[in-house]
Amino acid sequence: GDSVTQMEGPVTLSEEAFLTINCTYTATGYPSLFWYVQYPGEGLQLLLKATKADDKGSNKGFEATYRKETTSFHLEKGSVQVSDSAVYFCALIGSGGYQKVTFGIGTKLQVIP
Amino acid sequence: GAVVSQHPSRVICKSGTSVKIECRSLDFQATTMFWYRQFPKQSLMLMATSNEGSKATYEQGVEKDKFLINHASLTLSTLTVTSAHPEDSSFYICSAHDRGSYEQYFGPGTRLTVT
User: Fold this and answer.
1) Which of A52, A98, A100 to mutate to test the interface with B (most CBs of B within 10 A)?
2) How many CA atoms lie within 13 A of A42 on its CB side?
3) How far apart are CA B81 and CA B91, in angstroms?
4) Using only C-alpha atoms, what is the Rg of chain A?
5) Of A33, A44, A32, whose CA–CA distance to A90 is shortest?
6) How far apart are CA B50 and CA B3, in angstroms?
7) Which of A21, A28, A44, A90 lies in disulfide reach of A36, CB 3.0 to 4.6 Å?
8) Which residues contact B16 (CB under 8 A, 6 or more apart)?
9) CA-nearest residue of chain A to B43?
């Protein structure tokens, strides 16, 4: 079945540091890939997505590129802020037409001033 | 963008009572809605898939008689936790599949505490 593997946190960074959160996936065909963010006490918000190989999703300074050859979708941001502190989930929807979302375990990011 | 609402956002109930959680798609029609459960510091686990006008499909290990799901219209699905116990305390999140755009949108979640 489909699966998503992402680095376990917590990740602690100083403000303005570079962020990378690794994510790899296993799926048949060509899944759509997503990053969701969950702020403390809140639900999920879609951060960015990519629906085909080599697509780059970007939003709020975050980027991730759909790499079919390495089955990866790593999240990056050049300069993190304290307000980026949250839990980040990598996820996929398989290409079989069934809209079930498979989530990674989530990576907690803490940015300190 | 499309909005999915959940009600209530927080609920505290006594052990043995039932609790109903609503999930609504506010500006689009959702033929399929999903219910997830999130334990503290863990990822979301899919509980069931709710299809409008038909029975829900439950994931392995999820008790159908305990977690009753109804998807009576294209904009509303409900999850009823029957005879709740403290171990049912969790964060429940729904999502809705927009059949027009094929996007999926998540609700803000409902925190259930059973005392």
Assistant:
1) A100
2) 12
3) 12
4) 14
5) A33
6) 18
7) A44
8) B83, B84, B85
9) A105
How far CA B24 is from CA of A41, A44, A82, A90, B105, in Å, comes to 20, 15, 32, 25, 11
DSSP string, A45-109: EEEEEE-STT-EEEETTEEEE-BTTTTB--EEESS--GGG-EEEEEEEE-TTS---EEE---EEE
Cβ of residue B106 closer than 8 Å to a chain A Cβ: yes
What's A43's DSSP letter?
-
Size of interface A-B (CB pairs under 8 A): 40
Q: What is the pLDDT of residues A1-39, one digit of tens each?
A: 889 999 888 999 999 999 999 999 999 888 999 999 998
Backbone angles phi, psi at B6, to 5 degrees: -130, 145
